[in-house]
């Protein structure tokens, strides 16, 4: 007997064993149950909940990451009539930016005067005593090796003006 005949006979034996005693009763029972169900019973679609959009309305309020400003109404300073900004002078470039955006990064000295270097407003700028810095009419009064003293003129809230001193300290390397 050749090998191919042996494989063929073995295959027939296995196939004959699969067909003997096959019981399809469970399959017939399931098919009968499916056929017995009513034809038109389709479940309705679930109800759709529309999306409700959210609009952030606190954009104009104080940032929660900044400390709150305490104003004592009783002891609030009143503006003096002789204090007011010079509205007729030509504004300098660095007056178009908040003073908080600037930081002192160094000094330069020539034989006549001391200059300060401030970083902000898109670069490093050289300033001297008498220049203006920031939006509140901040005039540079003193330049030191470690700080710049600025006097700002701010409104007092009642139509007058107040002088407010500020300092920009030298930023050390980080």
UniProtKB/TrEMBL annotation:
It holds the Pfam family PilP. Gene3D superfamilies: 2.30.30.830. Keywords: Lipoprotein. It comes from the Bacteria. InterPro entries: PilP (IPR007446). The keyword Lipoprotein applies. This is Pilus assembly protein PilP.
């Amino acid at each position: 007997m050749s090998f191919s005949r042996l494989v063929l006979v073995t295959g027939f034996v296995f196939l004959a064993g699969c067909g003997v005693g096959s019981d399809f009763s469970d399959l017939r029972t399931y098919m009968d149950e499916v056929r017995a169900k009513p034809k038109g019973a389709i479940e309705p679609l679930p109800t759709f909940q529309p999306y409700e959009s959210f609009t952030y309305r606190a954009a104009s309020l104080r940032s929660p990451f900044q400390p709150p400003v305490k104003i004592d109404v009783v002891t609030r300073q009143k503006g003096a009539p002789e204090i007011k900004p010079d509205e007729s002078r030509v504004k300098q470039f660095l007056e178009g930016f908040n003073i908080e955006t600037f930081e002192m990064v160094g000094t330069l000295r020539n034989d006549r005067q001391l200059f300060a270097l401030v970083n902000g407003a898109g670069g490093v700028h050289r300033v001297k005593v008498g220049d203006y810095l920031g939006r509140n009419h901040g005039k540079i009064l003193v330049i030191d090796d470690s700080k710049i003293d600025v006097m700002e003129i701010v409104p007092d809230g009642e139509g007058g003006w107040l002088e407010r001193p500020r300092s920009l300290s030298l930023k050390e390397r980080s």
